[in-house]
Amino acid sequence: MDEKTIAEYETSAIKYVHLLSTSGAHQIFEMDNHDFNEFYILLQGNIVYELNGYQYMLQPGNILSINKHSLHRPIVLPSVCYERIYIHISPDYICPYMVSFSSLFSLFKSDSRPASHLIRLDSSQQSIHASVLLELESAIHAKNGSTIDKLIMHLMFIYSLSYLDGTSGLQKGEKIDGRLLPIIDYIENHYTDHIKLDDLSKEFFISKYHLCHTFKETMGFTLINYVNFKRVRKAMDLIKSQVPIVEVCYSVGFSNYSNFYNIFKKFVGIGPNEYAKSL
């Protein structure tokens, strides 16, 4: 797949990337997560987007709001072109605007089962949206930072107003497997506990084989890796808050430090002590 960068802009608080790929073959990406909020805008292509247990069949012009730490990935189906825009936004950047536009919080609410993160603009909103994107990329090429920031805020307000509209705003994702969602909820609330596959199978009346197979297919993780992922994400937050690392180890559900160290390094790339020193 040949890829071209149409426009790119980055500061400590915002990143905007417009990419165009040609000769798009079927492609499945690994599950991703990050510390920033994201708007994903599909311009061309045939995409199925997986986001925390929901599957979105995207059409050109659709926009996804993706909360920080959410597990997500695009599945690219065969098409001539795959064109998209990523807007990454620091949570700290959004906070000052939430007083006037509280719906911005709803766009990025933390939820293990995001039922409504797909933005479908109506025809008038699409026209305004396209105009703002063109103006924004002109400002990027001209390196006009103050104008770029204003236009990115304009985009967020368009999405926010679309949410308030209700009829043309956020739509529900399509559930991949209804039996999996309460299990994801359970893990969200109990990942610091000792979770056994046998117990989940009995609790939710699902065979261990089907549970493991469906979970891996849906989430891109094995069930145990997903539990460990949740633990490591929590551990990272606690380490940022200067909680002692040994205390972090046991409070997020690990039974010994050696196991905690190895799994933390597997997900983060460095050990917990090195991570703390890097902050």
Ordered list of secondary-structure elements with their pairings:
Layout: E1 2-10, E2 14-24, E3 27-28, E4 37-44, E5 46-51, E6 54-58, E7 63-66, E8 72-77, E9 79-89, H1 91-94, H2 103-107, E10 116-119, H3 123-142, H4 145-165, E11 170-172, E12 174-175, H5 180-190, H6 197-203, H7 208-219, H8 223-240, H9 245-251, H10 257-268, H11 272-278
Antiparallel strand pairs: 1-2, 2-9, 3-8, 4-7, 4-9, 5-6, 5-8, 6-12, 7-10, 10-11
Report what the structure shows:
With about 280 residues, the chain is α+β, with helices and mostly antiparallel strands. The protein is built from 11 helices and 12 strands. The protein has helices spanning about 90-95, 105, 125-140, 145-165, 180-190, 195-205, 210-220, 225-240, 245-250, 255-270, 270-279; strands at about 1-10, 15-25, 25-30, 35-45, 45-50, 55-60, 65, 70-75, 80-90, 115-120, 170, 175.
How would you briefly describe this protein structure?
It is built from 11 helices and 12 strands.
Count of distinct strands: 12
Order of helices and strands: EEEEEEEEEHHEHHEEHHHHHHH
The order of strands across the largest sheet is 1-2-9-4-7-10-11
Main sheet record: 7 strands, antiparallel
User: Can you give the mean pLDDT?
Assistant: 81
| Shape assignment | globular
Structural class by helix and strand composition:
alpha+beta
Question: What's the multimeric state?
Answer: single chain
Beta-strand fraction estimate: 25-35%
Residue windows where pLDDT falls under 50 for at least 5 positions: 166-172
Q: Calculate Rg over CA atoms.
A: 20 Å
Number of helices: 11
C-alpha end-to-end distance = 36 Å
Give the helix proportion (percent range): 40-55%
